[in-house]
Design brief:
Layout lengths: L6 H10 L9 E6 L2 H4 L7 H7 L4 E4 L1 H6 L8 E5 L1 E2 L14 E2 L3 H7 L3 E6 L6 H16 L5 E5 L12 H14 L3 E4 L8 H6 L5 E4 L7 H13 L4 E4 L1 H4 L4 H13 L6
Parallel strand pairs: 1-2, 1-10, 2-3, 3-6, 6-7, 7-8, 8-9, 9-10
Antiparallel strand pairs: 4-5
Helix pairs in contact: 9-11
Length: 261
């Protein structure tokens, strides 16, 4: 069936190559937390990160439209969910919803979209249904979907152990996610067990800000060595003493040329 081709499949392949390198690895930088917090990275950090040449950035709608030049050589992954902020002191559980649709992502030039998914949370069906709805939309236009898989939600309603991280990631892939962003197990060498059951690229999130920037680079190299397709770090990049330099160091670590001293 080599003569059979798909325009939608071709579109998804081309878009994926905008934020995943030819070696199958990627350094992704998350600059989207301000959507919920209303604070965080300085405005100029988008350009500083872009100068370091990451493979892709996870961003809000405003960043995507305000800094088009930043994405000339960098993949654009648009945050699709929100509508719950830290200003709401009564917020509890999963209060997120889809704020944009696939056509909005296509119009702004996104190469992929991302949303939160909470398998194992008491309200898991809300995020699972959001994922299924977005997958259905994006499949029709060849837009890759990244699921930020958080087992039990940020409140850890289930332990963040290797089994639950692996099961959560696989659930997201089975629903239709094209890539996964999630945490690594405490024992990083167990990440291989997560990757083994995940038929999609898996990118490890950075977690809390680390004081030692050398440790950030070593951690990135470690998760890739354990089997991850790459990393998706936020405050450990835009909060670094020199975000441009940090992106370059992480690029060398993930793509295989950094000395991890």
């Amino acid at each position: 069936m080599e003569s059979v081709a798909s325009a939608v499949g071709a579109g998804k392949t081309r878009r994926t190559r905008r934020f995943v390198g030819s070696d199958g690895r990627a350094v992704l930088v998350a600059i989207d937390m301000q959507l919920a917090t209303g604070s965080g990275p300085a405005l100029k950090v988008v350009e500083e990160v872009a100068e370091g040449q990451p493979d892709g950035m996870l961003v809000t709608w405003q960043i995507a439209r305000r800094y088009p030049e930043a994405f000339a050589e960098c993949g654009l992954i648009l945050r699709m969910d929100g509508a719950e902020t830290h200003l709401d002191r009564n917020a509890a559980g999963d209060g997120l919803s889809l704020m944009y649709r696939s056509e909005h992502a296509a119009v702004i030039g996104a190469d992929a979209v991302i949303l939160m998914v909470y398998p194992g949370m008491r309200e898991e069906k809300r995020s699972l249904r959001r994922l299924a709805a977005l997958v259905g939309e994006c499949e029709r236009i060849g837009m890759p979907v990244v699921a930020e898989s958080i087992p039990g939600g940020w409140g850890r309603e289930v332990p963040w152990d290797t089994e639950n991280i692996a099961r959560s990631a696989r659930i997201c892939v089975e629903i239709g996610a094209d890539a996964i962003k999630t945490m690594a197990p405490t024992q990083v060498d167990e990440l291989g067990d997560v990757v083994e059951g995940c038929e999609a690229p898996l990118f490890v999130l950075g977690g809390p800000k680390r004081d030692d920037e050398h440790e950030v680079v070593r951690y990135a190299a470690g998760v890739v060595a354990a089997g991850a397709s790459g990393i998706c770090f936020g405050r450990n990049v835009w909060g670094a003493s020199d975000p441009t330099k940090m992106v370059r160091r992480l690029g060398r670590a993930v793509h295989g040329t950094e000395e991890h001293a």
